[in-house]
Structures are given as C-alpha cells and as structure tokens.
Amino acid sequence: MVDRLANSEANTRRISIVENCFGAAGQPLTIPGRVLIGEGVLTKLCRKKPKARQFFLFNDILVYGNIVIQKKKYNKQHIIPLENVTIDSIQDEGDLRNGWLIKTPTKSFAVYAATATEKSEWMNHINKCVSDLLSKSGKTPSNEHAAVWVPDSEATVCMRCQKAKFTPVNRRHHCRKCGFVVCGPCSEKRFLLPSQSSKPVRICDFCFELLSAGEMAACQPARSDSYTQCPKSPLNDVSDDEDEDSSD
C-alpha cells in the first residue's frame, strides 16, 4: 500500500499541506518515496507538564510540533528518523494512560494517546515503518537511546544528594545521561555524549564518575515501563527530566 501511495497526487497534496502548516520555519518534507501514514494529537510528557503536540507519521520519519491553530498552523518542528526509533509501552498510572516511550539516541520521551485503541494503532504503525526501513537498509535496530527525563513535578529535592530543595532560586537541572532532576552542585560536570550534542553536556556527578571510568552501561536506562533509572550509588540517589521548550 505504501509503495502505491508514494507517487500519488493525494499523498503529495497531503504532505504539502503539512509543510504549509509549519510555514517557512519548518523543514521541507516532500521527497520521492515519502508517504504520510497518519497524523493526530498526542500528549507529550514535557519537563514542566504534559502538553498536546501534533504528530505526523511518515514511512521514514516522525514529525511533531506545537499546536498554534489546530489543522492550520504548527511551530517548533521536530523531525525524528524512524531508523533510530524504538518504542516501549508504558503502564497506566493515574491520569496518564495509553502511553508509550519514543526512544532515540538523541532524545527520548513519553507520549499518551486518548484511547487504548489509538495507542495500539500508533504503536503498530510505527513498528511496521521501522521494521520495513531496517529490512530495506539491512541495518540493525538501535540499542542506544537517550534517557527519558523525569518531569520537574516528580522531584521536590535533588534526586542525587537528596538534600537540596528546589526553589525559584535553586533551579532544577537534568543530567543528560540518566535523566534525573538534580541540583546545580550535583551537576556541575560536562561530558561529551556524541549522540546528543557536538559539545559537552550537563551530567550529574554520579554519571560523570561512571563515564570517566568507562562504565557506560552502568548508567544506561534499565526500565522501559517507567522513567529512566540509574543504579544507586553508595552515597546518593538519582532522577531527572526536561523539555525542548526550556533551556538548561
């Protein structure tokens, strides 16, 4: 079906409409062979709070952006190559239901659909697109992904030292390796994580010690049904999360 739609006028028209909705600030989306599979509003778990985002699934990329005017205008376009994507279901918890993790080497985050049926359809379509891409390219699925940031609301104190209380003056920060919410003194170090940035990024002291010692795997995400978790150090505890709308 995808092959049949690739060069159809209807598909080209649909992609053009999506391009226009993002305006001049968005990247061109029309390329030979690209097909728009589906679209819809999902709730993205961001640093400050869950926020509605418009998502577009193509046969080779996943695109999302902020909703300015529904069906007419979006901004802050993000494009994720599907070859780098793995997804994992999340157990329902409180008001957050019908969710799954979208994990990539650069950025990982949780999204939630309105219904269980919608969640199933999104996950099935994403998995099918990823499988088809990897089959054609001969590549293997990515086994490295960025940490899923813990929302600010989950941490009233630093998740490393367990002492520093967060206030308007004592800001929350996020370790780019484990995703935990940490205070400034516990995250003064920088480390180069090539999959996330060309420059050294903020990480917590615990992850810095592990990375400096070459123990990369010890700080890899360990659970797929919850927020990223790192092993406890003898002295400290851990946790963190952040959103693209914030600077840190």
Automatic annotation (TrEMBL):
Occurrences of domain FYVE-type (ranges)? 152-212
Q: Where in the cell is the protein located?
A: Early endosome membrane; Endoplasmic reticulum
Could you tell me where the Acidic residues compositional bias lies?
238-248
Q: What does this protein do?
A: May play a role in early endosome fusion upstream of RAB5, hence regulating receptor trafficking and fluid-phase transport. Enhances cellular sensitivity to TNF-induced apoptosis.
Q: In the UniProt record, does the keyword Membrane occur?
A: yes
Source taxonomy? Eukaryota, Metazoa, Chordata, Craniata, Vertebrata
Q: One GO molecular function term?
A: zinc ion binding
Name recorded for this polypeptide: Pleckstrin homology domain-containing family F member 2
Which Pfam families does the UniProt entry name for this protein?
FYVE (PF01363), PH (PF00169)
Q: Which residue intervals define the domain PH in the entry?
A: 35-131
Q: Coiled-coil ranges per the record?
A: none
Recorded name of the encoding gene: Plekhf2
Biological process, per Gene Ontology:
endosome organization; endosome to lysosome transport; protein transport
